[in-house]
Amino acid sequence: MCYLIAGSVPTLAQGAHNIVINEVLISNHDNILDEMGQRHSWLELANKTYSTYDVRGMYVTTNRAVLNNQMGVADCRNLMSVIPSGDERTQLHAR
Q1: Residue 95's Cα: distance from chain center in Å?
Q2: How are beta strands 19-25 and 59-60 bridged, if at all?
Q3: Which of 32, 55, 66, 70 has the fewest CB atoms inside 10 Å of its own CB, making it the most exposed?
Q4: What is the pTM of this model?
Q5: CA dihedral in degrees (11, 15, 21, 22; nearest 10)?
């Protein structure tokens, strides 16, 4: 006699809600230089999950106007900066 035991394991999909702003530098006078030797404001994102997450194509902004439900998608995008594709830094490693 042969028995087959089957079951399912619930899994949780990882999503953007697992990506948090970890650190922000507004006035970069003596910190990190970019590839052109300039100092810009920057923010650090952290991945709270146990696997790598790619943030390319996500948007960031400091403009609260994007929270207006009456504003169209195209208008909101104009007020935000997109995280570029093709950069290895968009791969956020686990934890």
Answers
A1: 13
A2: unpaired
A3: 70
A4: 0.66
A5: 30
DSSP SS3 for 64: helix
* Encoded tokens for 69: 């439900």
Alpha carbon distance 29, 7 (integer Å): 57
Quick one: which of 47, 45, 57 has its CA closest to 81? 57
Q: What angle do CA 15, 41, 61 make, to 5 degrees?
A: 45
Cα 60 → chain centroid: 8
State how far the alpha carbon of 94 is from the alpha carbons of 42, 88, 90, in Å: 21, 15, 13
Model pLDDT for residues 35-89, shown as the tens digit of each residue = 899 998 888 999 998 998 888 988 888 899 999 999 999 999 999 999 888 788 8
Dig out the tokens for 11 from the structure: 């899994």
